[in-house]
Structures are given as C-alpha cells and as structure tokens.
Amino acid sequence: MRFPPSFLDEIRDRVPISEVIGRRVTWDRRKSQPGRGDYWACCPFHGEKTPSFHCEDAKGRYHCFGCGVSGDHFRFLTELEGLSFPEAVERLAGEAGVAMPERDPAAEAREAKRGTILDALAEAAAFFRQQLHESDGAKARAYLRDRGMDPRTQAAFGLGYAPNSRNRLKEHLAGKGLGRDEIEGAGLVVHGEGIAVSYDRFRDRIMFPIHDAGEKTVAFGGRAMAADAQAKYLNSPETEVFHKGEMLFNLAKARRAAREAGTLILVEGYMDVIMLAQAGFAHAVAPLGTAMTERQLELLWRTAGEPLLCFDGDAAGLKAANRAAELALPLLKPGRSLRFALLPEGKDPDDLVREGGPEAFSQVLSGARPLADLVWMRETQGGSFDTPERRAELEHRLKGLFRTIGDEAVRRHYLDDAKARLSAFFGSGVSGGRGQREGWQGKPGGYRQGQGQGQGQGAGYGRRDGGKGRGQPGRAAISDRLARSRLASSANLPAASLREIAIVVGFVNHPLLMEEEFEVFASLDLPNGDLARLRSSVLDVHAANSPRDRDALLLELGRHGTADLFESFEAKLKAIRLWPVLAEAAFEDAREALRQMLHLQHRFLALRRELKLAEEALGREPTEASYAHVMEIKSEIERVDGTEALIEGFGLLSGRPMKAI
Question: Are residue 91 and residue 114 in the same domain, yes or no?
C-alpha cells in the first residue's frame, strides 16, 4: 500500500537509523562518533575487513563506499532482512509508537492475494518434500544419490519430488483449504483458455524450491525424470510473487556465506549451486533459466564488488560470458566489476569436485580473468589483423564498447587499457623470415623473442594458417598467456617446441613426478635432436638408480654429458618466466601444469596427424567437403591452443609467489 510521506517521515524521526542497523552490525569504535550520530561498520551487504559502511542519524541514511548500497530505515529491512515494504513500515511504526494509517481496500486486497499465494507455495513445497521420501520418489532419490548429493544437502535446500500425476498436488492443496485462485495464482497448475480442467504443472520431476530474500518459497524449478520430457528443466511462470529476471537462486543463503568468502560465485544451474554448497562453496548462486539481467547484476554487486561468473568452457558458455560482459560495461563503477572463470569443456562444477575435490574447483576460480581480459579475448581471438584497415577496425570496436561505460573515471581507464593493449599487440615491426616467427618489438608492453610481457593483459598471438604464415604481422590473436609462453606458435617448427621443452624440463625439476608418470615421459613423441637426447639421458639415469632429488638427477646428467643441454633449455623457460615447470614452483603447480601440457600435446599431435591426412585427401580430391574437413581440423587446433590459455594451462594453483629466478 502507499503511505503518506509525512507518516514515513515521522517514523524516521522517532527511530534513529543507527538503532535499526545496529541490530545487524557491530559498530567500529575507532571511526564511529555516537555523540554525533555518526557510525561506521563492516558492510552487511558484502564481505569486507575494513569498515566502509556509514550511517548518519541526522540524515536517516546509510551508504557503503565499498559496494555502493544506500537507503533509509525501510530499505535496510527490505534489502537485508527480506521484508516487504509494508512489513518494514509496520514493524518500525510499532517501534516508533505511531498508529498505522487506514489501509487502502485495493492495496489490502493485493496484499491478501499475495499472502495466500505464498501460503499455497509453502504448502506445495511441503508436499513435494514428503513425496520425495515416499515410494513414488524412489527414482528421484536414486538420481540424487547417483549425482553424489547426500540427504543433508537435499534437506538443506528443501528438495522434493512431483509425482507423475495430473491432479495429486491440486487435490492436496484443495484439501488444505486453498482455493482455485490461489493455486492458479501460484503457477502450480496449467489453466486458461482451451483447458477445460486445470492440471498440475510439475509432473515426474525433482523439485527445487526458489526463495526470495526472506527465504519464503516463491516459485519452483523442476528437473524431468523422463528422458523424453519436452523440457529437461521447467520453471514456475511469472506470478505476483515471482519475477525470474529479478531473482537469483540461493541468494539469501549465499549472501550470508559471501561475507566470509569475500565474494559471490554465479554458476549456470540449480544443481551446480547445490553441489558446490555441499563441497564447501556456500556462496554460489544461479540465474533462473534466463540470460543475465541488469537487476541480477545489481543483486550480485550488492553482495560483492567483483563477483565471479563461472561458465562452461564450451561455445555456449563463452557466449553467456560475453553477454554478461556487454550487459555489465555500461553499469561499471569504481569498485564494481566482474571476473570470469571458464570450466574445462564438458565439465560441470559437481564433476570437478567429485573427480578432483574442492581443490579442482578452487583452481578454476583462481584462474578467473578480469572483465577487460574477456572483452579483449573476444575481440581478438581467431581474428586476422594483417592490414591497417583491420587493425583500425579492432581499435574502433574496442573504443566503441568502452565508451558505453557510464562512469567517467572507469571509462577513461578502460580506454587507456585498450590503448596499451593495442600498442603491445601491433608493435612496430617484424623480425625473422627465415622459417622462424619472431615476436613484435620496439613498443612498451610488447615482447621480444624469449621475453614475456608479464603484464597479464590477456593479449596474444597465434595463427589461422596452420603455421605456414611465419613472419607475418598480427596473424590470429589467441591470448596473453599463450603468447608469452610461445608454446602454440613454436609447435609446428622442426625443432622441439617450447611446450615439449617445458614438459621435459618440468620432469627434471620435479623428479617425483617421474614415479607418477614414468610411462608417459618415456613414450613422449619428441623430434630428433638435443631434447630427445636429454630425455634419453634422464631415462638412463632413472633406469640405474631412480633419483628422487633434483640435485642428484642433475649430477648424474652431468656425468652423462647432458647437464649443459638441460641448463640451456631451462634458460629459455626462465626467459619467458614459465615458472610452473621451474624448480622454484610448488610441486602441486608443477604437477597440474605438466598434466595439462601433456594432455594438450597429445591432442595437438593427434590433430596434426589428422590434418596431414586431410590435406592429402584434399590434394587427391579437391571437393567442398574435403576442404571443409581441413578447415574444421585447423579450427580445432586453434581451439586446443586457445584452451591452453583459457584454462590456465600452466598451473598457478597454489597462489604462492614465485621465488626470484
């Protein structure tokens, strides 16, 4: 209902805002001045360690300089405690000793309708929970058990089961005294023109209750049990109490957990959120079957200044990440941005935690990239920039995107960042041309052969011509990490690639890995030359005494006359600061870096063999189909190289700083 402004002002005057907020926060004694009605605290809307949340009794307002939330008495109760506005007014009016004004009949009717809809939804949630534990719910229980979800997690999220019946829920609710209008208004049955008798909307589905900020059930999501169901997931329709573009699944619980974690994670689905919570990541939320909306971004930012958006590493996941980036750009402010983490393709969060434990998902999060990196990668990956016009087009696109940023300071810094990236990317010239492709030289932020940018810019160099266009400027961009490592660009050279060098050097620097992956190391398909000779010496040493210590292994290599070879190869990796395979790296980082390098090397070699056969077939029969096959394989090789960068293929797990090299 609408309240007279004078009535609301009287409540504000009688109840100090510090009294309302002080029930939920602890005031900082050093910064607060109670005598002046001036208070500071750690923000209750987002996790922080230094107080940036401020309220003044004289103004009756609060504001957080960290996450940007602000409001008065009533907004504090609606946003933090989940009360409706009339509920907040009624509570504070009671505290102030102010009589409530007479209600507007129409508003009262709407509130009553809303209340009965919530009653119907609460009763439906209880019904679904009960059905999960009945005989009809056996298949659903088996599915949840196979997914690794334990009963405590099911209970914590209120999971249930909708039986395969057209009327069970409707009849149950009617038996509880709920009328047709409430049941239909809650979206629990399908009804309308052309439907003589309404029927249950959710049938033979695992049910996920969706809660508002006050943890009241306002809708449901249902996961079909039948393989031939028209929709795998089905959500409640829009109702008086449910607007899916304005809510996030699990926000109420995640907001509390985010205060300790310091951030909020957005994933793609209900099961992702629930299985992450079971693995210890209670600060995860998900959209409700829609693309990200501005309202949902605001909800994220009210809890965390830089939430992590975690998407699948496939084309659909990248598309969703890019949509979120475009939506966020105009809304960016100081202290408000996004980071993006991409999952390995084909893996859900629960796959990761089930196979690799919580550490596997933590690794994905640790590799999250800033919003600026994602935009740069999208605009440059796979593109060809070998003419002034194409380079100008890239510059025009980037500046056009960043000019949409509303905040002047943030916009200026993004434009400066784009200028620096473009300068480093295009450089001033090319060196080489004798069968070996050189890096751009001469401009600040660029790199020279054997040197890394080391600036985390997310820019890179690659090619779309299968390695035949060496010495040409700005061929195809991939990513910063891949460019610095040069593993992709050197892989087609007759000599050993840097990726192969990194694998062998990594095993020497961490001999314990030899015990875990000896067969893999022994069977590496290396080109003839010094690297293959070094690998043979390492195998000979291990065949004799299997040293577990790096120094002992290097001593033996010196006796075999190959220690100098190792030192020269290691020097190349030090020059580009590929630290996860160096001796100073943590063992866990080295293990993960080598595991991913070996996987990518195996895939690369298989694709190269497949490409050779496809090119031979194209030479014999130059058809559209054979040409398309060649291009498809080349695209897959590009994707493998891009994956090496996107999934942080060179370790960086522990977060421990590298020792000086």
Answer: no
